């Protein structure tokens, strides 16, 4: 994707096509647990957290085709028809969700100006959609624009509010829209159905058990440490791309026949451990292993909490301990965030301690492509490159890392509150995770060699 977004261009739609829709599942109710969690993030980060992207459309695509896809998606997915209500009593300051039975959404059509690069222009449209303020109460949570080249549809940008869905649901939606003529009935519990289950006896049992787990974990957090203000924008984002981390993780996961995420989490836990305190990791859990959530286009992912005391342990023991802690974090990530917030307010601990981890890999998450690397390949994989890309005053999570696949390497995107964790410490942490992965991969391969 081009880095430049041609800010000099005036991004005004050539025309707007009204798309009328209707759908089932209309109603008003509280936010589901997943929606409440992402709403808390939105409030903290002062952002509607737009997600989505742009891509080329298949040859022969017409405006009528795109409008039909949009109408189908609005009908199929209640979250596309969901807006927030801030005037409903009894929700303790949390907005209600309102799912519409029908309405009209606008499909924007942009024409690439003469001499402009079409891909860069489309990237600018996508950035424009993300930058434009969003009204939760009056606007539909979907923005879609077709980009034409010489009058022919060439690209499509689709941006949604994160309340609509998580990443897994977004991929499911793209697959279904592409094959909409073969799709059967909508599957999975929609958010208003989730709310009803969460209020049921079974849902309340899950809520209470999850709260007991969170209570135990929160009590192990350190006390609040003073902030250290620094000059310039407070929140930074950086990228660490590493073939060495990718190759070492691949080798270790095969040698120990263990989940690749557990290898990464163990290296991260060992890098974080110190000063007599356990490592604290907040993994993003998709929750789609739960009944009724596997095939739903909705926001059901939530952060869990994993506390692993791995200081001084061997790598195998650290993997075992991290694995158990991670399993509990995944099990109890499906929780009522309001009850956890209430509990947190009573404890004199640093509620922002640790690191938020979002392992978003789609290729190597379950199994790496290709055969297991040998020791020479692990040694030959080059060390990672770190670069800071953004500095801003709008907040991120205090310390967060997203993990993505790239061909033959990982891309780790780091977000930090520099008043808590300065940039130099973040870069050192990234390199320490890489060094630990390489060291323990070589140890494991050496022991396995006859």
UniProtKB/TrEMBL annotation:
Pfam families noted in UniProt: Condensation
Molecular-function annotations in GO: catalytic activity
Annotated InterPro entries: CAT-like_dom_sf (IPR023213), Condensation_dom (IPR001242)
Residues annotated as domain Condensation: 71-230
GO biological process, one term: lipid biosynthetic process
Name of this chain's protein: Condensation domain-containing protein
